[in-house]
Amino acid sequence: MVTLESMAKEDLINLNVKADSKKIAIDVLADMMRSKGIVADTTEFTKSVLLSELESTINKGNGVALSRGKCSAVSSAAIAIGRLTKSISWEDYGEPVDIIVLAAVPEDDIDFERLDLMGLISEMLESITVVSDLYNIQTPGEMRDAMVGHINEF
Asked: What is the pLDDT along the chain (154 residues), one digit of tens a residue?
């Protein structure tokens, strides 16, 4: 069974992402995934994320963006979470972004459970209560636990 717990590990959460653009923020999260062996080529992965963004960015409002990259550079599905030290523009959206949830998916992955999980994450991030909690988290473990706890409410 695909769960948020199995995809979002503490070592893929950075609560102090320093970035002044969407691309740099994605690069930081992609590099975290590369360092854990999830993404082999960060350039290819970042390109897949940016292409995916052209099709449909999921800016959840409340300062949160949910994005994904699907390509052959991804060895296993995972989720990285970054909380920015300062808000950035997420291009065509009128609201700045402070938190990014980025999914990495292997190119040939068609796991419907994973798609359902991404739908639940999207729904969860629409909640002002959930997002408020995420802004007050102090450690990666607390971020993971909060997200796992909240997703069970949806």
From this structure: 567 777 889 999 999 999 999 999 999 999 999 999 999 999 999 999 998 887 765 655 688 988 889 899 999 989 999 999 999 988 766 688 999 999 998 887 765 555 677 778 888 888 888 899 999 999 999 999 998 888 877 7
In the chain, how many H helices and how many E strands? 6, 5
Q: What is the pTM of this model?
A: 0.90
With beta carbons less than 8 A apart as the criterion, state whether 98 and 87 touch. Answer: yes
Closest CA to 52 of 31, 34, 74, 83: 74
- SS3 for 69? strand
